[in-house]
Amino acid sequence: MQRIRALFPALTVGSPTSRDDAYLLESPRTALDYAAAHGDAAEAQILDILHALPGGGEVPRLFHPDSVLPEERVGEEAVRGLYGCELHLSATRMDSFNTCRFAYFSRYGLDLKPRREAGFDAPQRGLFIHYVLEGTVRRVQEAGGFSACTREEVREFARACVLAYIARDIPDFQTKSARFQYLFHRIRHSLDILIDNLYDEFSKSSFLPLDFELSFASDLPPVRIETAHGAASCAALWTAWTAG
């Protein structure tokens, strides 16, 4: 900036504001920033800029506002099939709809979720351990409880849960790197020790688990909102804390 001022001393330098950002349309790269700031109002302008670029004719006109399918093409039967007869809304869902209707449609209508590569960072380790522990205890309860099972039977339940997790979440386990498999087996070894500790405690205890992640909101009536266009039920989220 100092060099520009030296070359053009009479030049006036100003700071753009959020309301005066049309200069972003001068460049295809910054035009996308303009589109993000102005939403649907800028979509036609951005597409026109992209079409003017070399190869811009390949930009699909499907996304152009003039070629969007009219609402009457989406029948009531299809809407009910996607969302049900009643909408159960939450603050997160309403915020998603207000931010991007297509994202709301993809997530809650089509139930699409981003694909995640199986890894064993801290969150994935937690999910794996949680899955095996819950699955093992469920099977133990179905067999009569820890006191009715032998240690080897409980270990076999845990091994079955590990194999089920691999089949569901890591189907390409055999092609994973040696380091990945080493980390997995190390976590599994720690999990085996944890399973043994659970058996040692609960096989001699009168404590019986009643549920897994019990929801305190299941028996609370939803808040029903009725308008001239229909009705919606907003389930209130309640969190209960129990001091032990």
Features:
244 residues, mainly alpha, three-stranded mixed β-sheet, 3 strands, 5% strand, elongated
Indicate the topology.
Elements: H1 2-7, H2 28-38, H3 43-52, H4 76-83, E1 87-89, H5 91-99, H6 101-109, H7 122-142, H8 151-169, H9 178-202, E2 223-227, E3 230-234
Parallel strand pairs: 1-3
Antiparallel strand pairs: 2-3
State the helix count.
9
Which sequence of SSEs, written as H and E, runs from N to C? Answer: HHHHEHHHHHEE
What is the distance, rounded to the nearest whole angstrom, between the alpha carbons of the first and last residues? Answer: 63 Å
Mean pLDDT: 75
Determine the strand fraction and express it as a percent band: 5-15%
Placed side by side, the strands forming the largest sheet appear as 1-3-2
Task: Supply Rg.
Answer: 28 Å
Q: Report on the biggest sheet.
A: 3 strands, mixed
Low-confidence stretches: 60-69, 235-244
Overall geometry comes to elongated
- DSSP helix fraction: 40-55%
Class based on secondary structure composition and strand pairing: mainly alpha
Entry summary:
It contains 9 helices and 3 strands. By secondary structure, the chain is mainly alpha-helical.
